[in-house]
Automatic annotation (TrEMBL):
Its EC number is 3.4.21.-. One of its GO terms (cellular component) is peroxisome. Keywords: Hydrolase, Peroxisome, Protease, Serine protease. GO terms for molecular function: serine-type endopeptidase activity. The keyword Protease applies. This is Peroxisomal leader peptide-processing protease. It is an enzyme of class 3 (hydrolase). The keyword Electron transport does not apply. Peroxisomal protease that mediates both the removal of the leader peptide from proteins containing a PTS2 target sequence and processes several PTS1-containing proteins. Catalyzes the processing of PTS1-proteins involved in the peroxisomal beta-oxidation of fatty acids. It is found in: Peroxisome. Its main location: other. Pfam families: Trypsin_2.
Length: 498
């Protein structure tokens, strides 16, 4: 079964008019078909928040909600792709124009993934003005964001004998691992075009107990909530998580990343909740326990990336690259508020914070936005990075920085390609990449995905001279850049609109 066939679209309609939601106006999102044999489907619980009868019950922090807690007037439909469907043969069962079947479904129960909820509440605070819905302000009451950690278990009737979806635990993941996201953007709108759309990316970061929260740069559009995140191992794609929300905005800054909830923790919460009832078979089909055992060997891919730190200077913070135990390079505008600052390095669950001072920063007239920071106390266990001097357009690259969630749970990765290398006198002076750059990434490292090298080639000869003389005046060469360099970096000028 292909990745596209594992995913589906879920639509909820109301048979009578309710407040803020007129009859016949459907809501839809993406979902994952756990088993075609039993017809079990998982999707985002956000879709059902509008139909909760008692809005206050969610404040009691329940782990489970039964179907009786929701309106009796809702109708649920699953649209999915079948391998056996090669042409549209019946308008009653197949949507016009594409090999998509529609089946009615029942809500078995709603489950709260507690580990994801704890990680989410720790990382995202109201003061930081995060926005997770794609709705207009006029419709902001339709979805209750308290349901972001909730997932709906649905069941439809099918006659398929396809094996249950294979899955893998998120504890096998490491930052930088390639992933594929599958969902139906805009839900059930235009399934001919959007049904089970794929996007590729990497694991940008991991947080929470047993990696409950997965951050990826795989691009997910509105409506993909509830879709699947997959990892490939050989010829098989394994489901590792469900899309909780595309990250939309933070303090009016666009964040091009996606939040994913670990699948194995969703399954564990379901089974733990079901086991607390004597008649488990009345809550979930027995085949659900079989699905919970379908997994693969746990493989973790550890990459040795350059060390990136948080640079705090007054009210401004950014990222910096550790060049050696006593030196960090960052951007000039990050340290513009003062001469003294702090450097924080996070390694796993440990962190080191060291007082530092700006050794040298380029002048405002310089095209280079660079500052060199000297630490008053050396960092321990620092790996000195290699410096790359050769680059090829089209090469895979990563950006490693404390953007988005990084300040709370470590530096994040975003992937892309090297789109252009700008050289002057046969020396590279600027790279252009397709990596998404989010707030807080200033000073992050551009990393070559295969070799683990970072770009500070412009600084390399100056760093060698500084190591010999310990005179910060050697960095003044960056203030005397040629006119050609200034023209290359003209996007930094105040009149630039980019």
């Amino acid at each position: 079964m292909s990745v596209e066939q594992m995913c589906c679209s879920v639509t909820v309609e109301s048979s009578c008019s309710e407040k803020h939601h007129p009859a016949g106006s459907p809501l839809s999102c993406s979902g994952v078909v756990l088993s075609y044999q039993s017809g079990l489907v998982l999707c985002s619980g956000l879709l059902f928040s509008r139909f909760l009868l008692d809005k206050q019950c969610i404040r009691l922090n329940p782990n489970r909600l039964s179907p009786h807690k929701f309106s009796n007037n809702i109708q649920i439909y699953i649209d999915y792709l079948e391998e056996s469907v090669t042409r549209c043969t019946s308008k009653s069962s197949i949507r016009p124009g594409c090999p998509t079947r529609r089946k009615a479904a029942d809500l078995l129960m709603m489950i709260n993934c507690l580990e994801f909820q704890v990680a989410f509440q720790k990382l995202f605070t109201e003061s930081e003005l995060w926005k997770f819905t794609d709705l207009d302000e006029d419709n902001k009451n339709i979805y209750d964001l308290n349901f972001l950690s909730w997932f709906a278990i649905l069941q439809m009737t099918t006659d398929s004998q396809v094996d249950p979806v294979p899955w893998i635990k998120s504890t096998a993941l490491a930052k930088g691992r390639s992933v594929v996201a599958c969902g139906s953007p805009f839900g059930s709108l235009c399934p001919d075009l959007f049904m089970s759309t794929l996007s590729k990316g990497i694991v940008s970061n991991l947080a929470g107990e047993e990696n409950a929260l997965i951050l990826t740069d795989a691009r997910c559009l509105p409506g993909t909530q509830g879709g699947g995140l997959f990892v490939n191992d050989g010829d098989t794609a394994y489901l590792v998580g469900l899309i909780a929300s595309p990250l939309c905005w933070r303090s009016s800054n666009w964040i091009g990343l996606t939040l994913v909830c670990s699948l194995h923790l969703i399954l564990e919460n379901i089974l733990q909740t079901a086991s607390s009832f004597q008649s488990r078979g009345e809550i979930l089909p027995h085949s659900f326990t079989d699905i919970s055992r379908v997994t693969t060997h746990q493989r973790s891919e550890n990459e040795n990336y350059p060390m990136v730190v948080v640079v705090n200077c007054g009210q401004v913070w950014g990222s910096g690259i550790v060049l050696n135990p006593c030196l960090v390079v960052t951007c000039r505008h990050v340290v513009s508020e003062g001469q003294f600052l702090t450097i924080t390095l996070n390694i796993g669950q440990r962190s080191q914070t060291v007082n530092s001072k700006v050794l040298y920063s380029t002048k405002n007239s310089s095209p280079y936005d660079i500052a060199v920071v000297q630490l008053q106390k050396p960092l321990s266990h620092v790996t000195v990075p290699q410096i790359s001097t050769t680059f090829m357009p089209g090469e895979d690259v990563l950006v490693l920085s404390y953007g988005a969630l990084g300040k709370s749970c470590g530096p994040s990765l975003t992937s892309g390609i090297l789109s252009r290398v700008v050289c002057l006198q046969n020396k590279p002076v600027m790279l252009q990449t397709t990596c998404a750059v989010n707030c807080g990434t200033s000073g992050g490292a551009v990393v070559r995905a295969k070799t683990g090298e970072l770009l500070v080639s412009v600084l390399e000869p100056l760093l060698v001279r500084f190591a010999q003389s310990e005179d910060p005046a050697v960095f003044q060469d960056m203030d005397n850049a040629a006119d050609e360099v200034t023209r290359v970096w003209r996007l930094q000028t105040p009149q630039s609109k980019l």
